[in-house]
Amino acid sequence: MRDEHIINLIANAPFASLSESDLAAIRAHTEHCADCLRAFQAAQISALLLKERVAEVFEPPPFFHTRVMANLREREANGSWINSWALGRMWRAAGALASTMVATVAALAVLTFVIPGSQVTTEPQQVSSLANNYSAEEILLNQSDQLDEPVSDAQVLNTLYDGDEEVVR
């Protein structure tokens, strides 16, 4: 048992539940191993401290019950029992967050529904520049109407990537 340390035996079971054979093995090992002796002594001291702490009896200070009950009666009389209501406590904790979220939704609704409807383009340049925006599909389809032939894939790719050949080279 000299090569095997008993720290696992002490750590795995409560000190009070160790059997006599376990205690005999621990004592035999601690005669030769200083580290295990310190661990065994620490376990003994810890068990004694816990046993003494559990044996202590704590009593509340005098008139504790009277003060608590008087405080509760005072809260009921003032109507502050509403403050201890669960929803009230939750609102105090999350009220700022909820208010911020409502304000954000209102601002987004204004930006989405009111502002785009109020923007009217009256200048002729802006109207003409908006009318000249064509997509690649519109240009290709308009060309195919003039040619009376179906557009091939090569024509589509040449139209789309015509300016990119110079960049690649």
Characterization of the model:
- This protein is mainly α and 169 residues long.
- Helix content is 71%, strand content 0%.
- It contains 9 helices and no strands.
- It is flat.
- The chain starts with 6 loop residues before the first helix and ends with a helix.
Helicity, as a percent range:
over 70%
- Please state the average pLDDT score: 76
Unreliable sequence segments = none
Main sheet specs: none
Order of helices and strands: HHHHHHHHH
For the secondary structure, the number of strands is 0
Going by helix content, strand content and strand pairing, the class is: mainly alpha
Q: Measure the end-to-end span.
A: 81 Å
Q: Estimate the strand proportion.
A: under 5%
Number of helices: 9
3D shape: flat
Provide the gyration radius in Å. Answer: 43 Å
Layout of SSEs?
Elements lengths: L6 H6 L7 H11 L3 H22 L8 H15 L7 H33 L5 H8 L4 H12 L5 H8 L3 H5 L1
Helix pairs in contact: 2-3
Question: TL;DR?
Answer:
With 169 residues, this protein is mainly alpha-helical. The protein has nine helices and no strands.
